[in-house]
Specification:
heterodimer; A: 235 residues; Fumarate Reductase Iron-sulfur Protein, Chain B, domain 2; B: 3 helical TM bundles of succinate and fumarate reductases; 4 helices
């Protein structure tokens, strides 16, 4: 199978380029894209990419495969490429490339930091723990599972154009995770921080984030909830 | 909180709300005008003059043009802050937009009550 990989080493290359590799894919198996990258690495150990858990838990190997973002370790070849066709692997779009398939995620993490991703509670801590009812806990489902792989935010044009101002789908999903948490008492401060024309309202609801999330989460819905909370807190 | 001094209302929430409200007014006016055109196939000056001689039509029209102002400013401000990264060029673009919208409003007022 022909695999085309984005190559860029800022120390030696003037411009990024695509390099083709012709690989023997073992028959009878539907390899994951990460396995394909390992096959390439055996041929050419200068290809750089991130990976860690290789099972969709750590979020290290977010990549753009034939135009769609996803985690290489949980994306089977059959899902991204038709038999006999070429597989094109690029780094996540919209972030600076450190080398080959490795991107600099600083702006992405900065947005995550902005939404204060931790519980804020001014009330005195109880002796053992802050309890939640099963219903209160259920509100966090579909939010806490985010692994910060950046597939969604780097698929979002609003994040491409304003990565320093728009929090992005991932950050906003996390923002809602803390807004929805019954143990968090900083709801008003959190909402006040989001009520500008960029942080939340740059979302135009095109749902690229929902389309690519490898964990099947729905940032657009979370953003809608934040908007509703802003509305009801303001009127 | 991201600070911005050129968007319509300073707040993202009220910009969002205003854009939706103005859209409703624009849609209502479009339906009104299309219905009027359908009802009067061979339209003459007299019918136009009669329509716009009514006070509520004047107010509705002015409201619609003000909605165009609000709607277009929020929309084009968003487009400009997305795609025009050079501050000076964006400033010039927004100035042209603001001037055009101002002329629209002024021209409408003159046409309605002039």
């Amino acid at each position: 199978m022909l695999v085309s990989v984005y190559r860029y080493n800022p120390e030696t290359d003037k411009k990024p380029s695509m390099q083709d590799y012709d690989l023997e894919i073992p028959a009878g198996k539907d390899l994951m894209v990460l396995d394909v990258l390992h096959l390439i690495k055996e041929k050419d150990d200068s290809v750089a990419f991130r990976r860690s858990c290789r099972e969709g838990v750590c979020g290290s190997d977010g990549l753009n495969m034939n135009g769609k973002n996803g985690l290489a370790c949980v994306t089977p070849l059959s899902e991204v490429v038709k038999p006999g066709k070429k597989l094109v692997i690029r780094p996540l779009p919209g972030l600076p490339v450190v080398r080959d398939l490795i991107v600099d995620m600083s702006t992405f993490y900065k947005q995550y930091e902005k939404i204060k991703p931790y519980l804020i509670n001014d009330e005195p801590a109880p002796a053992i723990e802050r309890l939640q009812s099963p219903e209160e806990r259920a509100k966090l489902d579909g939010l806490y599972e985010c692994i910060l792989c950046a597939c969604c935010s780097t698929a979002c044009p609003s994040f491409w154009w304003n990565p320093d101002k728009f929090v992005g789908p991932s950050g906003l999903l996390q923002a809602y995770r803390f807004l929805a948490d019954s143990r968090d008492t900083a709801t008003e401060e959190r909402l006040a921080d989001l009520d500008d024309p960029f942080s939340v309202f740059r979302c135009r609801g095109i749902m690229n984030c929902v389309n690519v999330c490898p964990k099947g989460l729905n940032p657009t819905r979370a953003i809608g909830h934040i908007r509703n909370m802003l509305l009801s807190s303001a009127t | 909180m991201v600070r911005s001094i050129t968007n319509l209302s300073r707040s993202g929430l009220s910009d969002w709300m205003l854009q939706r409200l103005s859209a409703v007014i624009l849609a209502a006016y479009t339906i009104f005008i299309v219905a009027f055109l359908v009802k009067n196939p061979d339209l003459q000056y007299a019918q136009w003059a009669q329509l716009f001689s009514q006070g509520w039509v004047k107010i509705f029209t002015l409201l619609t043009v003000l909605s165009v102002l609000v709607h277009a400013w929020i929309g084009l401000w968003t487009v400009a802050t997305d795609y025009i990264k050079a501050t000076f060029i964006r400033f010039v673009f927004l100035l042209v937009v603001a001037l055009t919208l101002f002329v629209y409003v002024l021209a409408t007022v003159t046409a309605l009550w002039g």
